[in-house]
Write a structure and sequence with these properties.
The protein is an alpha/beta fold. The protein folds into two domains: about 260 residues, Aldehyde Dehydrogenase, Chain A, domain 1 (3-Layer(aba) Sandwich); about 180 residues, Aldehyde Dehydrogenase, Chain A, domain 2 (3-Layer(aba) Sandwich). It has 16 helices and 22 strands. A hairpin with a 2-residue loop joins β1 and β2. The chain is globular and about 85 Å long. This is methylmalonate-semialdehyde dehydrogenase (CoA acylating).
């Protein structure tokens, strides 16, 4: 029997140990060591979490928005004060470097900060005296119980995308973090309770498929937020919407970088290497496909040279550039795609398969890998590898590069590197992708905007955080009011009323 600590559930303001007989090991990807165990929550435990959220909603929705915001102000300060601890938890369970883990926490912290503006963002509209003393106004009201299903690759940022805005708008929340990285969400919940979030407003359940299907089908849950793989995201969107829920589901990506011949060579190569291999390539905004236009193709050998300089190792070592992948299965899948890509015509300019890290023999390491000559139809192009693999191709013109991107099924993010304002303007206008970077490799918007992935990268039509989150977590109620009702009191009519 494992002696690793057991991760608790959070139900109605209390952390409780599950009575489940099914527990999953949580591994440190750098060593293979079991660092915790997480339960498959029992049906009655899941029901209790939703009931707690339903009961809490009755009072939380009536809590003045200023008070809800003050709670979030306290929470964001506690997140800032405990950033190092949260980052250490992420590195232990997820594997990313400490510096990258701090970035994970900070980007979530920014969304919490933005949620403190909820009072202004929830303002409605009013039109006075449209006819005979009749006024029309709209108000935004919370939905009820909302739920979040979070991925392994951002254990802090993405949960904070979800529950911070969900709860500040007056909803109550049930979170299901990834069973691979439950520790950070547990600590965030402790800080939220310390900040004054009332019992039942935030609850945590754990599990795999059964827990996901429960969220998608429980009648009390009104809305679901999900970030993760295509297969899971499609299932959650289909099952959730079939059960009458509002669903936002961020799926896969294949993000292209277009490199024009006039780009700053040194800055561009460094940006590409960082964006492709950071976080071991395990982020949906990684620049995994580089398209060199015209004479810029001469730079391709330098990509492999620069990538080979990156150090692979445990995330808690200060000199590590690329940490481990999350599981042996993820590493094996990536290795298989690279092997198949070479068999189908790609050239291996840098091979990161089989890399060994002294002292971390049990880790799931995959070194930076560069494939050239990758075209549509090759598995390295068609698949989201989710590993430190950069695929490279060339095109003769910017038009050709844009056509390549627009023919891809995904629409999460892309970037162009150029010193030409005309080329940048053409690119941002014509490319059919939700998030565009100009001389910036990972164009994740700040929280006052929304995460606007498009096409095959999202299901649902309301985006994460920013103004999109206010729309997602609230419903509009329109009130038509007449306090001059005696004007036509003695006139009977079966005609549809007109106010104009």
């Amino acid at each position: 029997m494992s002696t690793a600590p057991k991760v608790p559930l959070l139900i109605n303001g209390k952390f409780v140990e599950s009575k489940s007989d099914i527990w999953y090991d949580v591994h440190n990807p750098a060593t293979g060591e079991v660092v915790a165990q997480v339960p498959e929550a029992l049906p009655e435990e899941r029901d209790a979490a939703v009931k707690a959220a339903s009961d809490a909603f009755l009072t939380w929705k009536e809590t003045a928005v200023q008070r809800r915001v003050r709670t979030m102000f306290k929470f964001q300060q506690l997140v800032q004060d405990n950033m190092d601890e949260l980052a250490a938890i992420i590195t232990r369970e997820q594997g990313k470097t400490l510096a990258d883990a701090k970035g994970d926490v900070f980007r979530g912290f920014e969304v919490v900060e933005h949620s403190c503006a909820t009072a202004q963002l929830m303002l409605g509209d009013t039109l006075e005296n449209v006819a005979n003393g009749t006024d029309i106004y709209s108000i935004r009201q919370p939905l009820g119980v909302c739920a979040g299903i979070a991925p392994f690759n951002f254990p802090a940022m993405i949960p904070m995308w979800m529950f911070s805005l969900g709860s500040t708008t007056g909803n109550t929340y049930v979170m299901k973090p990834s069973e691979r990285v439950p520790g950070c969400m547990t600590r965030l919940a402790e800080l939220a309770l310390e900040a004054g979030l009332p019992a039942g407003v935030l609850n945590i359940i754990h599990g795999k498929h059964e827990a996901v299907d429960f969220i998608c089908t429980d009648p009390a849950i009104r809305a679901i937020s999900f970030v993760g793989s295509n297969r899971a995201g499609e299932h959650i969107f289909d099952l959730g919407t079939r059960h009458g829920k509002r669903v936002q589901s961020n799926l896969g990506a294949k993000n292209h970088a277009v490199i024009m011949p006039d780009a700053d060579r040194e800055a561009t190569i460094n940006a590409l290497v960082g964006a492709a291999f950071g976080a071991a390539g395990q982020r949906c905004m990684a620049l995994s496909m580089s398209v060199f236009v015209g004479e810029a193709a001469e730079w391709i050998p330098e990509i492999a040279e620069r990538a080979a300089e990156l150090k692979v190792g445990a995330g808690d070592k200060e000199d590590t550039d690329v940490g481990p992948m999350i599981t042996p299965q993820a590493r094996e899948r990536a290795e298989a795609i690279v092997t198949a890509a070479v068999e189908q015509g790609a050239t291996l300019a840098l091979d990161g398969r089989g890399v060994k890290v002294p002292g971390c023999e049990g880790g799931d390491f995959f070194g930076p890998t560069v494939l050239t000559g990758v075209e549509p139809g090759n598995p390295a192009y068609d698949e989201e590898i989710f590993a430190p693999v950069m695929s490279v191709t060339t095109r003769d013109s910017l038009d050709d590069a844009i056509a390549l991107i627009n023919a891809n099924q995904y629409g999460n993010g892309c970037a162009i590197f150029t010193q030409s304002g005309a080329a940048a303007r053409k690119f941002q206008h014509e490319v059919d992708v939700g998030q565009v970077g100009i001389n910036l490799p990972i164009p994740v918007p700040l929280p006052m905007f929304s995460f606007t992935g498009s096409r095959g990268s999202i299901r649902g039509d309301i985006n994460f955080y920013g103004k999109g989150a206010i729309q997602f977590f609230t419903q509009v109620k329109t009130v038509t009011s007449n306090w001059n009702f005696k004007v036509n009191a003695n006139t009977k009519s079966t005609v549809m009323p007109t106010l104009g």
